[in-house]
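=== Structure Prediction Worksheet ===
Name of assembly: unnamed complex
Input type: mixed (protein and possibly other molecules)
Chain count: two
Listed entries:
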Amino acid sequence: MKRNKIVTKINHQIVEIEPEKSMTMLASFLREDLSLSGTKVVCAEGDCGACTVLVGDKLNAAGEFEYVSMNSCILPVYKLDGAHVVTIEGLNQQDQLNPIQKSMVKCHGSQCGFCTPGFVNSLAFMCEELKNENKAISEKKVKNYLTGNLCRCTGYDGIIKAGLNINLSEVKLLKEQFDNSDLIDLNKMLKKKSLVYKDENAKLFLPVDIEEALDLKKEFPDSKVIAGGTDTSVLKNKGKANYTKIISLSHIEWLNEISLSDKFISIGANVTLKKVEEFFEKEVLEFKNLLHIFASPQIKNRATLIGNVVNGSPIGDTIPFLLALDALVLLQSSRGKRECLLSDFYLDYKKINLDKDELVTHVLIPRVLNNEKLKLYKASMRKDLDISAVSFAGLLKLNNSKEIEKINLAFGGVGPFALRIKNIEKEALNKKLDQNLINTLKVKLQNEIKPLSDLRASEKYRRSLAQNFLEKFLVEAGGMS
Amino acid sequence: MSEFVHDSAYTHVRGESLFIDDYRKQVGEVQVFVIGVPKASGKLKKIDTSKALKIPGVLGIYTAKDFASNHWGTIKVDQPLLVENEIGYFNEPAVIVAMKDETNFFEVKKNISFEIEDLPPVFSIDEAILKNNYLVKSTPFIQGDVEEAIKAAPHVLTGQFESGGQEHFYLESQATIVYPLENNFFEVHSSSQHPTETQHVVAHALGLSFNQVTCIVKRMGGGFGGKESQAAHFAALASLVAFKLKKPARLILSKDDDMEMTGKRHPFKTTYEVAFDGQGIIKALKAKLYADGGAYTDLTPSILDRAMFHIDGCYFLENCLIEGYALKTNHHSNTAFRGFGGPQGTLVIESILEDIAQYLKKDSLEIRMLNLYQGKKLLTPYGQLIDHNPLPEIYQELKSKSEYLKLKQEVERFNQKKLKKVRGLSITGVKFGIAFTARFLNQGNAQVNLHVDGTVQVSTGATEMGQGVNSKIQKVVCEAFHIDAKQVKVMPTSTEKNHNTSPTAASSGADINCSAAYLASLKIVNRLKWVAHHHHHKLFDLNNEIPSYGENKEILSECKFENGNFIINNKTYSFLEIVKLAYLNRISLGEYAHFKTENLGFDKEKVSGRAFNYFTNGAALSLVEIDEYTGELKILKSQILMDLGRPLSIGIDEGQVAGAFIQGVGWLTTEKLSYSQSGQLLTHSPTTYKIPNIQDVPRDFKIDFFVHDQNIQNIKKSKAVGEPPFLLGISVFCAIKNALSFRRKKMVQLFSPATSEAIYEELSNE
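=== Predicted Assembly ===
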């Protein structure tokens, strides 16, 4: 049996959403339909955090919701099927401030107040995670959890102090604040029951297994497949694209997994960057560290690695890493399955090797061996939460006489898509690593790249960055410093 | 009295504070959208709206001809509300669309077409100079004999310096709701720093008299100068729809449109010649400042003046010739932004001092301290003598508190190691003139109403944009009446209660409005003493009204007001008791006061007189590290010492200092505005325009106050705080220059903003 209504819970109330509203962004749904105006919209592109809310959409091993922060301005309500949304109004206690709010008031963490609810929600996410993990608040943690929130008034000084002065023992976990017994069973039920909504203007599908998704993709080849949906929502908000046929993968559990074999890490289409970041802490710390300055917590909590791959942006920050490791994409259609080396997946600017009826289900990442060194760099106008001017990934293996046995070099921001520079790799192979070689490679690299000038960087600067990253990589990975 | 927090803090953290777009929609309310022209220059021949008018949800489409008067402007009425003929800049508002809701807006936008006859645009200061496109030529400031001094000096550096514009990035974009009342009266709710001007502009645009329009400002989600003049523009656009359709009309700009349509901080270019001796003491400065005013006059003349007023920074210029020009270009009309030209002026001198240090191979702090206003060297380029001057003490105290000399040695040692990282250190200062340079603006008024339960409502012309002016007003009123914060409420700003007010700007909001509120409160307190006197001496009599209050000094001095009690001859009467008696005996418990800043009067033509009431001073140290592979910057430490006299509210003032400093750092580092070749702003959202993030705060960030009682010119010996600390961000810029000087053999040539790319370019230029 199919259904056509999204069901979600907002603060203490279960809400059934009229089908024609299912593609509305949560922020406007909250503000316009529920009169919950504590959630503010500033940029409508997930870059300022004023609209931050907490969302529990996955159940953990204990069968409880795991909450994360998200930008509600780019979160279509159909992504909230079966989920619990907590807004600033939900965090308010009747007649007193909660411990986070108390600290924000006492430490002058709020001036004009427009960004404040977003900051309170991000701090609530911090407290929720730290309490669950039995960790303490530190200045570093406060800054990391608030990377996705912009404030123009305070210079963040009062906010950092407020974060540090929260009495964590007084903070209640969300499961203690909300009785979700009504929702948990409902959630399980919804995830087993496909949603289909069709009218003359729009079509929305939430299939529950991959076969159903592939059939839909075959039937509606021009439909947009959505996992995280962060980028497509921005385009919609800005009037640049209007997706009217959507297949959302959220309910396909098979795509939620990260699995590990001797040779490969397999990452499913629904796996968020947050999960990837957590996973790689033990696997490849270098990649975890890159993800640390990539996007905001709110985005990483929603956006997927495969979304970044399929988006095909020339400056997609994760792509050079995947290219350098010779990652594979797994594609599937109702016709069957195929594998494609990521470096063959990109054809031109935002053009990918994907048929109309195909989906990318997984990325397979070869594991870094003990004798290989991986380095990832990016340069941008602002260190955190900024699109790169140039990004770089390099993998190096030297033999005992310092000769290069393996070298993989991938760049973002130097051409129409992220790419491997095979000619330089060939040039370097089997040569002794020394400053002369570095100088030669740096010069030759110039013929291999075609960066553009734009608002982020000039062509000249991009060329210098590419050279310097190559040098830095060979110096650092080659143990020359 | 306990520390005052922001008067809206409680509702802010609960998300219960109402901003314009949080007002519930009324039945029949209309949404207003603005569409701009797709060219930066040209003649608008025709607008075709016929197709758009047929789209469902469209209730009306309006153009310039629909206004009774289509022009506005604070200083000069030269800016069209909607493009009429000549186009000023890309995406300049040309069409207003009234809609039921936002659903089909993008469709409407697509279906409106413009016929434009192209004219060559002017995008840079240099081009505008060549074409003689001057908006303003200011009267120069002259002291001593510059030419002689330059001839006589052992060293002369000539050069030019450029600083870029800056987007305000207030989180709440321009926002207005207009409610039509009966008989063509309108209530305008606007996110505006200047309700009086908003009222006037709306009335003028619709052909109404001022008394038909009331402008109300509860709060703004940030202003920073961007809502000083330009809020009025969008209020007028929304008002037209309310006027035409007789329905409530709401206009909320999207962030992208806001960034493209509204003015920014003025980019400046300065050419200079500076002469100095072997110690680094400046003997003469000759400077020409050029500002990019954008398409219209707006506040440019005053901003240019303030840049000229602040090119001396904290330093004595014995001989100088300061000239100022503003150019007309095809950019959005540039406007007020925290510092109002002051930062652009002071940045030049601080950058020059950094150059002198590099040139003479001397310590920059030593040179700065030699050049400070001190001893008898207290005459400014504009002829005002500085009356109290704590600058030498501030520099000395910061130098020792921050262990400057030790840090300097550490930097030198670090840089010798050649770790592909280079560090730099600098201390810079601020001396910011407090007062509107337009004399008439230095006035304000307040209405204080004391209710019979002892609570107070205060109304002034000050607008709350996050800076905490309401809390400061609340605090002085509490102190006047000896009551708690809970008992005093600062009410929304309304032109109905406080008219002919000045913008909340020039850091003067607290100075002027606290003073007016305090005056009004003291008048009531004195009247209550009068009542207490009559009560004590049993003079109330049903047959004889007590004489109305007069300033009888004997009576006033007989009655003491202490700890909330009136005391006469050791007999105590409670505040509440006297308040009630006053009411019962028909004595007024409300008071209105007008305040003006005394002893101001700068003659612009003669360049003499007092331009400023006093100066807010401060200094900051910054220590930075640059990645030599990429030019990327890290601020390792910033330490600020701020002179706010006797600060009105330490917590709120600290927030102002930190916020202004970081905003200044953003202007000087990551906040780069980029335009397409056709003049369209490309950096029109936070994805492309990078204001500081929480990770950009200095790793070690300290703020201290230099507290004293010398500032008797202002309320409770305090000093204004809003803008001055913005200029301390310059310490980061100078620290970057210092770092570069370690790697560069030639003189460092760095302009603002010092983006990674600009820094890298300097590093790699040999």
